[in-house]
Amino acid sequence: MYFTLELAVRSVSEVLEHGLSYKEMGLFVIVGYCMTLLFIICNEAYHATRKVGHEFQVRLLNVNLGSIDRNTQREVEMFLVAIAKNPPIMNLDGFANINRELFTANISFMSTYLIVLMQFKLTLLRQGARKMLKTIVMAVFNSTTTLADDDEEEEPDVGQ
C-alpha cells in the first residue's frame, strides 16, 4: 500500500510537467482508495485497542469484588494494574503501531516527499531555463557581432 501511495505521489510531478492524463487520474483514484483503506484500518485499530483497554478495565472495576475470595481479588487488581501500565497496542510485527498516528504520519511523509520532489523539479526547470536563456543571449550576441563584423567588412568595399 505504501509503495502504491509513493508511486501515485510521484505522478504529481508528471502532472506538472505534461498535464493530467488517464494514467495520473487512475493513480489519484488509487491514492484515494489506499488512503481511505488506511484510515479505516487505523481508526478501527484505535477503537479496538480502546475497547480492549479502557472498556475492559471499566467492566472489571464494576465487578463486585466483595463476593469473591481474596486471591481472586488480588489477581483482578494485578490484572488491572498490568493493563494500566501496558495498554494494548496493535502493531505490524513490531515495525509500526497501528493507530491514528500512523495515518497522520503517512500524510506527513507523503507531503514531505512531494515537496522534495517538487523542489527537485523546480531546480531542473530553473537550470533548463537558464541554459535556454544563455543560449538565446549567446545566439543574439553572436548574430549581432556577426552583423557588426559584416558591416565593417562592407564599409571599405563601399569607400573604394
TrEMBL record:
This is Gustatory and odorant receptor 22. It comes from the Eukaryota. Keywords: Cell membrane, Membrane, Receptor, Transmembrane, Transmembrane helix. It is a multi-pass membrane protein. The keyword Transmembrane applies. InterPro entries: 7TM_chemorcpt. The chain crosses the membrane at residues 26-46, 102-124. It is found in: Cell membrane. The keyword Membrane applies.
